[in-house]
Structures are given as C-alpha cells and as structure tokens.
C-alpha cells in the first residue's frame, strides 16, 4: 500500500494528502482544542466568551484524557455556522477552505478503499504536541467500538470519522442551499440515519440563522 503523506495545519493538527482532489484534508473533524488556537490568536470580537459558551451548550467540551467510546464526539467542535468555519479557514491561510461536496465525497470514496492506518504512524510526527497526540490516540481507540456496528469492515474513512463523527459542512452547487452536510453521526450523539455513501448532502434550512448542534467541519488545503 502506498505510504500516506501527512502535514500539519497552523494549529498543529494532522492532515493527509488525497491524490484525487490534489489537496490535504484534516485527519479528523476540527476539534475544540484545535479551534481554541484560533480563538486565542484571533482578534475577531465575534468569537468572544459568550459565543463559545453558546457553542459549548450544544456539545460540551471534554479534555483529550476524558475521551471515551460514549462521548468522543464532544472533543469536536459542532454547532458552528458555515461562515464561522470559513473564518477559521482564513486564519489557517489562503490555501485552506471548506471542501466542496465533490471534494469531500471524492476524498471519502478514496479513503473508503483503504484499510485503517496504525495510529503510531501519525503519532511519530515529531512536531505533534502531547495534547494533540493524546487526543488522536484516545479518539482512535474510542471510535473502534461504534465502528464495529457498521455493516462494512472499518476503513480509513471510518478511522478518520467521515462516518460516526459529526455532520460536516460542505459547499454545494446546484442545490437549494449553498451549504450542506456530509458525514454520519453516532446514534448517541444525534441519532441520525443519514449516510454519506450515496453522495447526496443533508441540506438544513437556513444554516446561518441558527446553530445546528451536530454540524462541525474539517478543512482541506488545496495545492497551489
């Protein structure tokens, strides 16, 4: 099997290269401790303490050491609006962005053809901070049990929580809304029966008007 190619985003979290879309994609949905790098560094008054309290009310925060099979989704940021996710992308840099529907689905299909990767491969990245390494390992272990209930064997896409993670914002064209969601949530988090396998997004109504607690995101970093 071809060796995976990794890089780190500005918050120190890993991304993996997907040849088919010529871009890196986040290994996991954006985590709360990952977004907190942006909150500390950004002068944007929109993201004040009351904003974060509102978001955490929908999906409370846990530390990396508290991650278990019955709560691991709490490590990820959700309840965020697409425009807010785009601000995080701008902070990361000009080549970062939310994936389009086709980019997300093409990445999913490619990763679904590959077996899971030993987490030690990612942990060996020397630049990883201890908290990030702990989170990656705990999430990897915690998501094993829910993935056993999936109808197919666990794939690299499952390990990266493109299923059984959060619903992830994608940019849509030719749909009734600019924004849709791809992914699949664990039943204990949201209970959604939505599956990404058919390639059609979930289209929520007015995603900028109110917070949808299962919706988070991951970014891609497009090649120059």
Descriptive account of the structure:
With 224 residues, the protein is an alpha+beta fold. It has one domain: paralog of FGE (formylglycine-generating enzyme) (Alpha-Beta Complex). Helix content is 31%, strand content 12%. It is built from 8 helices and 8 strands; from the N terminus they run βββαααβαααααββββ. The strands form 2 sheets. It has a 5-stranded antiparallel sheet. Strands 6-5-7 form a 3-stranded mixed sheet, covered by helices on one side. The longest helix has 13 residues, at 130-142. The radius of gyration is 16 Å and the shape is globular. The two termini are 26 Å apart. 38% of the residues are buried. The model has no long low-confidence stretch (mean pLDDT 93).
């Amino acid at each position: 099997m071809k060796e995976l190619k990794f890089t780190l985003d500005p918050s120190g979290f890993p991304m993996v290269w997907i040849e088919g879309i010529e871009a890196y994609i986040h290994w996991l949905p954006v985590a709360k401790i990952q977004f907190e790098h942006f909150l500390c560094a950004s002068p944007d008054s929109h993201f004040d303490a009351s904003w974060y309290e509102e978001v955490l009310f929908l999906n409370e925060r846990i530390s990396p050491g508290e991650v278990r099979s019955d709560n691991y989704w709490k490590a990820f940021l959700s309840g965020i609006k697409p425009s807010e996710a785009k601000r995080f992308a701008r902070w990361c840099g000009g080549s970062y962005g939310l994936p389009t529907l086709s980019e997300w689905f093409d990445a999913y299909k490619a990763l679904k053809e590959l077996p899971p990767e030993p987490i030690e491969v990612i942990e060996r990245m020397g630049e990883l901070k201890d908290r990030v390494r702990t989170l990656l390992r705990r999430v990897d272990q915690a998501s094993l049990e829910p993935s056993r209930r999936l109808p197919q064997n666990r794939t690299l896409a499952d390990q990266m929580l493109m299923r059984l993670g959060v619903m992830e914002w994608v940019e849509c064209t030719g749909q009734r809304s600019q924004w849709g969601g791809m992914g699949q949530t664990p039943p204990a988090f949201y209970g959604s029966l939505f599956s990404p396998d058919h390639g059609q997004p979930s289209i929520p109504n007015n995603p900028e008007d109110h917070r949808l607690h299962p919706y988070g995101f991951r970014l891609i970093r497009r090649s120059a």
